[in-house]
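Notebook entry, structure prediction.
Reason for the run: the old model in the group folder had no record of what sequence produced it. Starting over properly, with the input documented here first.
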Amino acid sequence: MSTPMALDVDTGLLEVSGRRVRPAVVWVRHGSACALMAQARPAGSMTPLRAESWSGFLRQVAATASSALPGGTVVGPGQLAQARALGVRTPRTVVTNDVPAGARRVGAPTLVVKTPDFRLFEPDRRGWKDCLPSVAGREAVERGTGSAPGGAGGRPVVVQEYVPHQRELRVFQLDGGICAFEVRKPDPSSPMTDPDSVTVTRVDCPVPAAEAVRTLCAAWNLRYGAFDLLVSDTGDVVFLEANPDGDWLWFERKARWHGVSFMAAVMIRELFVRSTS
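New structure, fully documented this time:
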């Protein structure tokens, strides 16, 4: 990032290569220091100090704007406790560096073991093997003989109850607008290992799913969010994760429907009008 930039904190003016603008709507995606380092090209060109400095600069630009996206929310498994407190069903979950002990604590007969957002921080596919999500029986995980990463080198991973389900949904919320895709895949890791085997279909969002999404967005002040939900065998909606940086283009390409991009453009326009009126 060699383009000269300066942010006047007092006036809120951003100068880029001699041109001054006043940010009205700022949407920062994947702006953490770790993400900037992992995605830098050529690889290794972003030092920790440089990455943190740019991450802080982006946060400051967003803070001076009239409207900032996506909004405020916790990330990762911490969302589950808050969702449960709001009356939204979630799977039993433990974060641990001892997978067999985590399996015993969760207690479900079938488990999912995963490393959230690993692709963002590990762009080299050769490092994905121990991060891919896997489903295994609890007894196998406790013995360390299941397909789950047994401890993943001592780093914390998510050990979660596997919820038998009729449907898996990816639901996008854009400033109150809702759209949904149904996802069918042979294995949790299929989107990363065999994307051609994954089917994505544009569907009407079930009312209980939309209600859960709107409840969480209101609580977390989210203007944008990509929600992963299950519809259980009993018909209950189960919340897995909300990704405030979640990509929609892959889902649009798979479904051959580009409504999310249209909704995003409309959202940005409306936020801009509100900010400048």
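Summary: The chain is about 35% helix and 25% strand.
The old model has been moved to the deprecated folder.
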